[in-house]
Amino acid sequence: MAWLGELDLGTPAVPASTAAQVTLTIDGEPVTVPEGTSIMRAAALMGTSIPKLCASDNLAAFGSCRLCLVEIEGRAGYPASCTTPVANGMVVQTQTSKLKQLRKGVMELYISDHPLDCLTCPANGDCELQDMAGAVGLRDVRYGFEGQNHLVQPTDASNPYFDFDPTKCIVCSRCVRACDEVQGTFALTIDGRGFDSKVSASQNEDFLSSECVSCGACVQACPTSALQEKKVAEIGTPDRAVITTCAYCGVGCTFRAEMRGEELVRMIPWKDGKANHGHSCVKGRFAWGYAQHQQRILNPMIRKSINDPWREVSWDEAIAYTVSEFKRIQEKYGVRAIGGLTSSRCTNEETFLVQKLIRQGFGNNNVDTCARVCHSPTGYGLSTTFGTSAGTQDFDSVDQSDVIFLIGANPTDAHPVFGSHMKQRLRQGAKIIVADPRRIDLVRSPHIEAAHHLPIRPGTNIVLLTAMAHVIVTEGLADEDYIRARCDWDEYQDWAAFVSERERSPEAVEPLLGVPAEEVRAAARLFATGGNGAIYYGLGVTEHSQGSSAVMAIANLAMVTGNVGRPGVGVNPLRGQNNVQGSCDMGSFPHEFSGYRHVSDPETRAMFEKAWGRELDPEPGLRINNMLDAATDGVFKGLFVQGEDILQSDPDAQHVAAGLAEMECVVMQDLFLNETANYAHVFLPGSTFLEKDGTFTNAERRVQRVRRVMKPRNGYADWEIVQLLANAMGLNWNYTHASQIMDEIALLTPTFRRVSFDAIDQYGSLQWPATDEHPEGTPTMHIDHFVRGKGKFVVTDYVPTDERSGPRFPLLLTTGRILSQYNVGAQTRRTDNVAWHPEDLLEMHPHDAENRGLKDGDWVRLTSRTGETTLRLDVTDRVAPGVVYTTFHHPDTQANVVTTDISDWATNCPEYKVTAVQVAPTNGPTKWQEEMRERGRISRRIETVAAE
Amino acid sequence: MNSVGKLVQMANDIARNLEAMHLPDPAKATADHIARFWDPRMRAMIFERVGTAGDEGLLPTAVNGIRLLRDRGAPAPQTRATEFNAVDEVGHSDAG
Question: Residue A172 to residues A51, A54, A128, A792, A923: CA-CA distances in angstroms?
Fold first, then answer.
């Protein structure tokens, strides 16, 4: 498609490191470009568009359409400008009589076998074939239209978001190349030759059944309407675009929201997006329809009891009721009897205001966020070792990695655009070591094969990391020059002595790990000697009883091999949600203000007290799990929840339900009535990312703009609702725009000193710290030294989790995510993404299934010491024997009814990845599932206001 | 498990893992950790638990750390994880 308002330069830029420049003449004008640039791109940079159809600046040059021919002085023939690099002194003509004749001939051939229905075609006005016909001056087709053609072929409408109409296809191969080069799925090919050539998904399957992951790169690449978004066909072509940031995962893809009026037509990944470089996944590109879903709540509601139906009320009544209830509760039970949860999906400005409401309004520090249950161990672990836990690299760093060690993460599912980027590097020759109990796609998929897959037993991360350290130290592979320069040498020696002990060796721990010792040794040697070594990790590391310790062990490994402080290396936590980094930056933890300053620090507290006009609590508040414990103790009675569903996402669901049930006022601010709302007394309808201004901070510390593209259907942006609450409490807030909130953040938070909406508009994005010293932000940290001094080696002895498999529960359950659904599925389940994952499945190895008389597709009961649930079985060898796996995207599954209250020792991050379970056949849902369904049925009744 | 039981488990986990880090004074580090991250009621509950039931069910490092905190107040930071940014400091992160 023609990119609305964006220039396609035809072929990719050469690497930024290219120093040599070349000067040539194009159409009589001199132009200087980096060596290796194509003539096509050089011409485009000087403002001359050479006609093209098969070229696109995010794909390698292909040279098939023969439209982009040029004449080069001193060279015979008419070379394609896309595949011809510039040379010093070259003289190029882009428009001559012969070239015009050749181009018309090419277009005649294309149009002779193409429907002439431009006026009713969805791509009318947005079609490169149409543009090129105009550009070359095509007026007739001398071949006529009576010959053999491809004008009668069925359309593949299987994909819920786009159609494939082969009659419009010109076999330029852009879609195939996009799937290969950009996405890395290799789902498409050109089947047949010559006249029989056609685009084929997998083995001539329809798109939905094929390996296509619906990222949309092919649709974006298509120059005609052969691949076309259904929304464009339905609504028409867009006429304006607004740049905004995705509200799904921590990659933080930026998009052009292409609009017609206030109607969103499509989301096109922004080429200049620093995190995604013009690519996206199925969720960001297509799954935004939840904003219009019929289940979306648009009016405030209250009820006295969770057994009553909801009653729709005015905003004034809902806000007044909330405030009066919280006041009553505090008068009866004490100041610390209420608290709140910020949302890692709301903007920085919104989470800042929620923690401000709690600290200034509630008068306590009972604020927490979902980072508690995912990467809080990253904070603890990297602070201890590096002195700061900010991500050390940006995503582009992977382009310079030689060896990637991926542990406890599955980026092709959970961070898909970064997963594609990683695969590009792997196809260039980098090696990957994967430590995961499952055979994830990065172990083996088209053109990708891990050098080593270490399918360790759940709960043994530290054992593996220590065994690898053992190999590196005892085989003399440690980078001692680096360690002496950048780390504490004495601490290193203590640590080295520890890891060198015989009982830490791969051979000694092989029975515990479940991985051959020689494989561990080979992986360690590769990481230590293979060049730039980068470690990427995720919740498979943090969501354990020793999560924080495992993060420290990872940091130790990076330091001992000298792999911190330059591009291509580093310790890279893959942070989950779109703004989980931001919500932590904004002070969402109960022990610290924004900017990671402890609430007990008198100077920091004085600064906030002066700004906010009241005395603030100097004591740490309650974490989420502690709030629930306090609730069951009868002393915590009120909770404000913005954009979270703790009943579905937090562990030990029965305990969460018990805690919520004890509270006297639970206030939900959300889009839909979720599981937690079953226990709520006030529902304040929230807004989506399409309906507000603000910023998100992605996993690279990159602060990017969220821009409103339509009016909020509920009437208010989320931050405006929090302001209503605050003013009803007498706090006198008077923000009129989200930018003012960021200005306050900048005033009170040193790391954000130079962040503002204007600055982000100027630079595109800012990676904090953005200070007076670094007003444009800080892409890479710890370049010459760690922020807080020397790197610290920390001994991390293995402490086995209390959660052990045994005769009663012989299997270990681990949980994770899938590409098409997102977290608890609140958004994605209300889009057409349900086509791919309509239910959570339990993955089980064939041996374990056979031992239990189970077969693929059976209903099974999954039981732990905490609870039980039922779901359908998926028999697969992706998991090792003894391990089972499921996702948590569907509330009916109640996956977290089986997870336990065991958590990371330092941060209480739940141990989702290790639960001892048993699996058996079943013929119906569990009592808990039935109770939850009934609770949902009772709880979701709504009495509408009678018409007057 | 009731709340006090959970606090005992948490204190033991903290103590055990701080011991596993081979720190010079894991009891002091336990006191430091509890001081920085536990709210006043949780601290009061564990103090009372130690006061009434002594070291029953608690690791020695845990009970020593709790008594140290109860009797002498929060020690200086014992690990870098409990050294938070100063009012105008930049760069530390506790991000999840």
Answer: 14, 5, 12, 55, 52
pLDDT computed for residue B93 by the predictor? 60
- Residue B20 resides in a domain: yes
Q: Which of A247, A225, A251 is nearest to A831 (CA)?
A: A247
Are the C-beta atoms of residues A161 and A216 closer than 8 Å to each other? Answer: yes
Q: Which domain holds residue B69?
A: 3-76
In this structure, is residue B81 part of a structural domain? no
Q: Note the Cα A725 to chain centre separation in Å.
A: 31
* Interface with chain B: mutation pick from A487, A585, A596, highest number of B CBs within 10 Å: A596
Number of domains in chain B: 1
Q: How far does A378 lie from chain B, in Å, by closest CA?
A: 6
**Is B91–A603 a contact, with Cβ atoms under 8 angstroms apart?**
no
| CA angle in degrees (0–180, nearest 5) for A480-A483-A488 | 135
Question: Rounded CA gap, A687 and A346, in Å?
Answer: 9
DSSP state of A789: B
Dist CA A623 CA A631 (whole Å): 12
Any CB–CB contact under 8 A between A788 and chain B?
A: yes
Q: Note the pLDDT of residue A779.
A: 76
The answer, yes or no, to whether residue B91 has pLDDT greater than 80, is no
CB A312 within 8 A of CB A851: no
Residues of B in contact with A604 (CB under 8 A): 86-87
- pLDDT of the residue at A892: 86
Q: Residue B47: pLDDT above 70?
A: yes
| Any domain includes B89 | no
Which residue ranges of chain A lie beneath pLDDT 50? 948
Cα-Cα-Cα-Cα dihedral of A394, A399, A402, A408, to 10°? Answer: 50
Question: What is the pLDDT at residue B96?
Answer: 37
Residues 64-123 of A with CB under 8 A from B: none
Task: Render pLDDT for A853-892 as a digit per residue (tens, 0 to 9).
Answer: 999 999 999 999 999 999 999 999 999 999 999 998 888 8
The answer to whether A92 and A26 have CB atoms below 8 angstroms apart is yes
A764/A173 Cα distance (integer angstroms): 32
Reading the block at residue A44, the tokens are: 């485009």
pTM: 0.94
Buried b (16+ CB within 10 A) or exposed e, A720-740: bbbbbbbebbebebebeebbe
What is the rounded distance in angstroms from the CA atom of residue A33 to the CA atom of residue A428? 25
Q: B10 to chain A: which residues are within 8 Å by CB? A: 905, 908
Mutation target for A interface from B39, B46, B59, B69: give the one with most A CBs within 10 A.
B39
ipTM of the prediction: 0.96
Tokens of B86: 């100063």
* pLDDT tens, position by position, A454-469: 999 999 999 999 999 9
Taking CA atoms, B14 is separated from A77, A314, A766, B66, in Å, by 76, 48, 37, 11
Which site among B69, B85, B88 would you substitute to test the A interface, given the most A Cβ atoms closer than 10 Å to its Cβ? B85
In a domain? residue B19: yes
SS3 string, A33-97, reads EECCCEHHHHHHHCCCCCCCCCCCCCCCCCCCCCCCECEECCCCCCCECCCCECCCCCEEECCCH
Contact residues on chain B for A792, CB-CB shorter than 8 A: 80
- List % helix, strand, coil for chain A (3-state, nearest 5): 35, 20, 45
Whether B95 has a pLDDT exceeding 50, the answer reads: no
